[in-house]
Amino acid sequence: MSKNIYKLTILLMMLNPCSLYAAGDYESGKSKSQVCAACHGIDGNSKITMYPILAGQYKNYLVNALHAYKSGKRNNAIMSGFAAGLTNQDIDDLATYFSNQKGLKILPVK
Amino acid sequence: MFSDNLHAEQEIDIGKQKSETCLGCHAIHGYNNVYPTYKVPKLAGQHADYITSALKSYQKKERQHNTMHANAIALSDEDINYIAKYFESLK
Predict the structure, then answer these.
(1) What is the Cα–Cα distance from A65 to A71, expressed in whole angstroms?
(2) Where residue A38 sits, what CATH number does that domain have?
(3) CB burial of residue A57 (10 Å; 0-12, 13-18, 19+)
(4) Domain assignment of residue B2, yes or no
(5) In terms of residue numbers, what domain contains A69?
(6) In A, which residues are within 8 Å of B30 by CB distance?
(7) Range of the domain at B54
(8) B4-26 burial, b for 16+ CB within 10 Å, e for fewer?
(9) Which of A32, A76, B27, B69 could form a disulfide with A107 if both were Cys (CB 3.0 to 4.6 A apart)?
(10) Residue B3 lies in a domain
(11) For the segment B15-53, what is each residue's pLDDT rounded down to a tens digit?
(12) Model pTM?
């Protein structure tokens, strides 16, 4: 019984077509990121201090943020407009691109 | 607006002291938020203006996150200014 549940779980994981964390494509993300560059910089290191640096941010944090803007859970006049037009694949691609740039780090302990 | 009395280095130093609480989540590599699950964002090197805006949004619940609201309401405007400058200094 438990073996079957295990097999079924694996099967569902393999078949799930709309996972939020599907593999993003770096090159697609790079080309789609041109819209973002005006505010967030070409590589996500924004020069305008009211707009966050995205470079080096965790991929699934960026994915979650874009979905939150898209769903309206997170409100921002500018970002809501952009996120509304993004597919899950677009979001994964963009997050893959920005998370792979050199930029943000975790806070140091000392 | 607060920098008349203190030098930038002093502000950053105060920010470092005041950001101890943040380290429990934001200084651990790959630490997860749950429901929904995603990694707690990296903040070192982030713009001070953005950090300030984010913390004030959490205070007002314009940006919704229970843990961040609880932490943000404990901060004065001065605290936020120092913490934001400390994070920005970590480029």
Answers:
(1) 10
(2) 1.10.760.10
(3) buried
(4) no
(5) 23-99
(6) 58
(7) 8-89
(8) eeeeeeebbbbbbebbeebeebb
(9) B27
(10) no
(11) 999 999 999 999 999 999 998 999 999 999 999 999 999
(12) 0.86
Q: Which residue of B has its CA nearest to A45?
A: B46
A104:B45 CB<8 A:
yes
Nearest CA among A108, A105, A110 for reference residue A53: A105
Chain A neighbors of B62, CB-CB under 8 A:
75
* H/E element, A68: helix A59-71
SS3 state of residue A43: coil
Decide if A51 and B47 are in contact by the 8 Å CB cutoff. Answer: yes
Helices marked H in chain B — which ranges? 8-18, 20-26, 48-59, 66-72, 77-89
Tens digits of residue pLDDT in B53-70: 999 999 999 999 999 999
- The label of the residue with tokens 């677009």 reads A90
- Please judge whether B38 and A60 are an interchain contact, meaning their C-beta atoms are less than 8 angstroms apart: yes
Q: Using CB atoms, pick whichever of B27, B36, B44 lies closest to residue A104.
A: B44
What pLDDT, in 10s, does the model give residues A56-66? 999 999 999 99
- Closest-CA distance, A52 to chain B, in angstroms, reads 6
How far apart are the two ends of chain A, measured CA to CA in Å? 50
